From TrEMBL:
The lineage of its organism: Bacteria, Pseudomonadati, Pseudomonadota, Alphaproteobacteria, Sphingomonadales. GO terms for cellular component: cytosol. It comes from Novosphingobium fuchskuhlense. This is Amidohydrolase. The keyword Hydrolase applies. Keywords: Hydrolase. GO terms for molecular function: hydrolase activity, acting on carbon-nitrogen (but not peptide) bonds, in cyclic amides.
Length: 573
């Protein structure tokens, strides 16, 4: 029988990504693009029954670190397991290009410290058959993968490539250095970078505890580099600002870079759990920037920002206690057996943490440390914190955490909810998400393999805010718009995120009623047998990239249609 289309999605409720009214009907795909929507005649070579399901654009994950994973793996999970069809990497100014051979170890040290990717994984998994950023993009373009990727030019490698040891040592850039970085940035935009990314965050450290090459770089350096984007007329500036020094000071980076380069900017925004709501002041500044003719968007995590802690992971409540070093090398069953010894218990419960990476101390913020069980609750009531349980039991928070590890045979997980959970509520996250200049982000897929698994935020936004009830409920069309068209435009991806005739056929078919998150799990599928956190979902009946079904009923089909997204400055030589 002759067919008219490659794929037809039948009878779904279509949330097209625009934020407008839902549409009941069919959707047809031909040649990787949407050929018809609504009521039409014709059959598909393949058809999917979407009756009782929602059909959405593929989601855009604007903040990932798949720079290494896209080299050594074909599946960009967890993101692709949560409806994501395009991921943006190179965020926070860390990555692997440009880079001379002599600087490989230095960049591995930076990425290991900032993004918690074990050095041995990168040493084993990276081919390093590139030097310049355009060469790296060509390598990415040649690889097979399930979803599309786009890449920022990262500041740390750029600085070291241009300045050598002076760049790594954070010396001030000379006029010649600035001119070179500007030229390299323009070259990267012409090769297809979607922008330039940096970090100013003080807790971003190298694996050996030092400051990363970009920390405290002069704003004039950022102005000079981003003028390279202005020279080409393309690219977005992405930055992690150091809110610890105050938003009034740090937001000036956004204002000055936009003024110097004429290019849009995007940055991470979160609320503190206890501090006054300074984030509202940032929203006012965002509004002023956009009203004045600039373009800026904030990226907001739809659930608490924090860490997952556990004995099998990078961080746990006793990892820096001096006595832990005696059993750190043991298997988890052996560690649990040792922890049952009264003498070791007394030592671990009484010892303070030794110095270490700042992330480690976050697992002892007892007021905001919660159990994470199945199904995972990312908005737990305050009384379930280690501090809350200790008050109820008349003991110390250390004892509550210790007992949980013993009761779960060392497998129990903790959620360290350290931001976006103001007064133990998601109200601040909800308010920021609804702001016209905020988009969901900060999933960090491809990084923090042993401490963070937030690439599932798209599923969480739908289950928590759309399926939920009460004052924080979001309309389905509004939520889908946030995850697709709005997110895409915030980072300069104007060719996706919308279901309309002629648009790319990137989409999801979702059983919203059955949509749920699984508990994060440890898998060992990284190079050199490295471990990482992964989180699965139920309810994604189909995910389609460029017209090909890459996932069906929450399982990979093996299809690999994913491509490199070249930015607007791309020039074919």
């Amino acid at each position: 029988m002759a067919t008219d289309y490659d794929l037809v999605i039948r009878g779904g409720t279509i949330a097209d990504g625009s934020g407008g009214d839902l549409i009941e009907g069919d959707l047809a795909i031909a040649g990787g693009r949407i050929a018809a929507i609504g009521a039409f005649s014709g059959r598909g070579a393949e058809e999917i029954d979407a009756k009782g399901r929602i059909v959405t654009p593929g989601f855009i994950d604007v903040h990932t670190h798949y720079d290494g994973q896209c080299i050594w793996a074909e599946e960009l999970s967890p993101s692709s397991a949560h409806g994501v069809t395009a991921a943006v990497m190179g965020n926070c100014g860390v990555g692997f290009a440009p880079c001379r051979k002599a600087d490989h170890d230095m960049l591995i040290n930076v990425m290991e410290g900032v993004e918690d990717i074990p050095g041995v994984v990168m040493t084993e998994g990276l081919s390093w058959d590139w030097e310049t950023f355009p060469e790296y993009l060509d390598k990415v373009a040649a690889q097979k993968r399930d979803i599309d990727v786009a890449a920022y030019l990262p500041h740390s490698p750029l600085r070291v490539y241009a300045m050598g040891a002076r760049g790594a040592a954070r010396e001030a850039a000379t006029e010649d250095d600035l001119a070179l970085m500007r030229r390299l940035t323009a070259d990267a935009m012409r090769a297809g970078a979607i922008g330039f990314a940096t970090s100013r965050l003080s807790i971003h450290k190298t694996a050996d505890g030092g400051a990363i090459p970009t920390f405290d770089a002069d704003i004039a350096e950022l102005e000079a580099i981003t003028r390279g984007m202005g020279d080409v007329g393309a690219g977005t500036f992405q930055v992690v600002l150091d809110a610890f020094v105050g938003w009034d000071k740090e937001y000036r980076v956004i204002e000055r870079v936009i003024a110097a380069s004429g290019r849009p900017a995007t940055f991470t925004l979160a609320s503190g759990n206890d501090a006054p709501p300074r984030w509202r002041r940032v929203l006012e500044k965002l509004e002023a920037t956009n009203a004045a003719g600039g373009t800026a968007h904030a990226q907001v995590m739809p659930r608490p920002i924090g860490l997952i802690a556990g004995l099998e992971l990078t961080v746990h409540p006793f990892v820096l206690c001096p006595s832990w070093s005696r059993i750190a090398h043991l298997s988890i069953p052996e560690q649990v057996a040792a922890m049952r010894d009264p003498a070791l218990r007394e030592a671990l419960l009484s010892e303070d943490f030794a110095p270490g990476h700042p992330f480690n101390a976050l697992a002892r913020n007892w007021r905001w440390l919660f159990p994470l069980d199945n199904p995972p609750d990312y908005a737990p009531p305050a009384h379930l914190s280690m501090e809350g349980q200790a008050a109820a039991r008349g003991c110390t928070p250390q004892e509550v955490a210790y007992d949980r590890l013993l009761e779960t045979e060392g497998r129990g997980l903790f959620l360290a909810a350290l931001g976006n959970y103001e007064n133990a509520s998601l109200a601040s996250a909800h308010e920021m998400l609804k702001h016209p200049y905020c988009v969901p982000g900060l999933g960090d897929g491809g990084a923090h393999y042993g401490a963070i698994c937030d690439a599932s935020y798209s599923t969480y936004l739908l289950t928590q805010f759309v399926k939920g009830e009460g004052p924080l409920k979001l309309d389905l069309a509004e939520a889908v718009h946030m995850l697709s068209r709005k997110a895409a435009r915030a980072v300069g991806l104007h060719d996706r995120g919308l279901l309309a005739v002629g648009e790319r056929a990137d989409l999801n078919v979702i059983d919203l009623d059955g949509l749920s998150l699984h508990l994060p799990e440890v898998v060992r599928d990284l190079p050199a047998g490295g471990r990482r956190l992964h989180q699965r979902a139920s309810g994604y009946e189909a995910t389609v990239v460029a017209g090909e079904v890459i996932r069906r009923f929450d399982q990979s089909t093996g299809a690999r249609p994913g491509k490199l997204i070249r930015g607007g400055g791309y020039r074919i030589n």
